[in-house]
Design goal:
With 200 residues, the protein is an all-alpha fold. The chain has a single domain, classed as LemA-like domain (de novo design (two linked rop proteins), Up-down Bundle). It is built from eight helices and no strands. Helix 2 packs antiparallel against helix 6. It starts with a helix and ends in a 7-residue tail after the last helix.
């Protein structure tokens, strides 16, 4: 009976010590930062979806103008199709190759939309169309929200990655499988940052 009581106390003490060690070695911080990164990524995905949802109506409105370049519309439609076909889940954050593929698809869509807005310049009737101007304004708002969401994601990933690499939390990260997450970057990043606009 005495041995049983002593072993229970030892076990309880070991649990308390282990809990203290885990909290002091950065485990809880890593969990919090991992969840923050996932939440930031979800917001980025929400904004990409919002932008993608605007495109069919934009294309439909633009198609109403018979002379409009079909090739430009096709590029936008294909880029949207490619961008929305990629399953963007929180797990994507742990697969750098899939993450880059997703980024490239979104970058192509941004480029196609920018080209569409430039071509619109040649069509004064389209620029004056109320439905088009409303959609354009919604698209600009979506692009702005997307830029803010990407910024938050970049900051949260930076904090998380620093914690994963910094001593002594890097030991905890290795033990519990917290690995570096890819940061958001895009080919032609300056071009992507530009909100598609039409000068009147």
């Amino acid at each position: 009976m005495k041995y049983f009581f002593t072993s229970r106390i030892s076990f309880a003490f070991a649990i308390v010590v282990l809990s203290f060690l885990l909290s002091s070695c950065g485990y809880n911080s890593l969990v919090s930062m991992d969840e923050e990164a996932k939440a930031s990524w979800s917001e980025v995905l929400n904004q990409y979806k919002r932008r993608a949802d605007l495109i069919p109506n934009l294309v439909k409105t633009v198609k109403g103008y018979a002379k409009f370049e079909q090739e430009t519309l096709t590029q936008v439609i294909e880029a949207r199709s490619k961008a929305t076909s990629i399953q963007a889940t929180p797990e994507l954050l742990n697969d750098p190759k899939a993450f880059r593929t997703f980024q490239k698809a979104q970058g192509r869509l941004s480029s196609a939309l920018s080209k569409l807005m430039l071509v619109v310049e040649r069509y004064p009737n389209l620029k004056a169309d109320t439905q088009f101007t409303n959609l354009q304004s919604s698209l600009e708002g979506a692009e702005n929200r997307l830029a803010v969401a990407r910024n938050r994601y970049i900051k949260s990933i930076k904090q998380y990655n620093v914690k994963v690499r910094k001593f002594p939390s890097n030991i905890t990260a290795n033990i519990f499988g917290f690995s570096l997450k890819p940061n958001f970057s895009v080919e032609n990043e300056e071009e992507v940052k530009k909100t598609p606009t039409v000068e009147f």
